[in-house]
Design a protein that fits this description.
- The protein is of the alpha/beta class.
- The strands form 2 sheets. It has a 5-stranded parallel beta sheet with strand order 2-1-3-6-7, sandwiched between helices. It has a two-stranded antiparallel sheet with strand order 4-5.
- Helix 5 links the parallel strand 6 and strand 7.
- Helix 1 packs parallel to helix 6 and helix 2 crosses helix 3.
- The chain is globular and about 55 Å long.
- The protein starts with 5 loop residues before the first strand and ends with a helix.
- About 30% of the residues are buried.
- The protein binds flavin mononucleotide.
- Flavin mononucleotide binds next to helix 1.
Length: about 220
């Protein structure tokens, strides 16, 4: 029997294409996971190739209209959001590129967040507050920053994404950060090399944590 592939949802949110550090680090991360023995089936969304529209009043109206009463255009809007949510639910591993734009996330990633955070689908309201409905997913957040920023000072990127994913129930998060990318050649190279070391540590930690499942896969494979 062959090893069951892990379903990966990879979100590229940089506007810099091949010159993007977060895009390059996402590629490094998936390569190193595969080199460590993970079989991956990767579903990629690159927001600069296929932007996610803002979740505006037309989308809200479409979702609030009963299915039987929706226009074709409203149904298309609901289908689009449903597809994003289905991709997220299907993923075992979520890998997100986080370029820092104006201290926070790129607006296209924020738009994706607004589509996938849906009460009744990815979280629910309870008497004690919202509770996430997504479970058993590993998240890798790969941040890239022109400067150097600390959580609690000028970094609203990593804490915001952590808070957001927590709303959905996603709490098993590994952070990788490349800082100082626009501060000159040397700081840039150091920032990338530190991030690559963080990728290795995150892959190792992931492999250890999931070693029981990996062992099961190996036994299945040998059977
Ligand atoms: C629109 C825009 C806003 C940015 N804002 C910040 C910022 O607030 N702080 C910072 O350190 N770098 C900022 N930068 C620099 C990026 O974080 C840096 O170029 C990083 O490499 C982006 O990730 P990427 O290479 O994956 O695109 C900004 C870049 C752009 C294009």
């Amino acid at each position: 029997m062959t090893q069951t592939a892990r379903q990966v949802l990879q979100l590229n949110s940089s506007i810099l294409g091949d010159n993007s550090v977060s895009n390059q680090l996402l590629a490094t991360l998936t390569e190193r996971l595969q080199a460590a023995g993970e079989k991956l089936e990767i579903q990629q969304r690159d927001f600069s190739v296929e932007p996610v529209p803002h979740f505006d009043e037309h989308w809200l109206q479409a979702l609030m209209t009963p299915e039987a009463d929706r226009s074709d255009s409203q149904q298309q809007k609901v289908d689009f959001s449903d597809t994003l949510i289905a991709e997220l639910k299907a993923a075992d591993i979520l890998i997100i590129g986080l370029p820092m734009y104006n201290f926070s996330v790129p607006s296209m990633l924020k738009a994706w967040n607004d589509h996938v955070a849906r009460a009744g689908a990815t979280f629910k309201y309870t008497d004690t507050g919202p509770v996430g409905l997504l479970e058993n997913k590993k998240v890798f957040l790969v941040a890239a920053m022109g400067g150097v920023h600390k959580v609690g000072e000028s970094d609203y990127l990593r804490p915001y994404m952590q808070q957001f994913l927590g709303l959905l129930g996603l709490t098993d998060i590994s952070f990788v950060t490349a800082s100082g990318l626009n501060m000159g050649e040397e700081p840039r190279a150091e920032g990338i090399s530190r991030a690559e070391a963080e990728i290795d540590a995150a892959v190792q930690a992931y492999r250890q944590k999931y070693s029981k499942q990996n062992q099961d896969y190996k036994e299945e494979e040998a059977a």
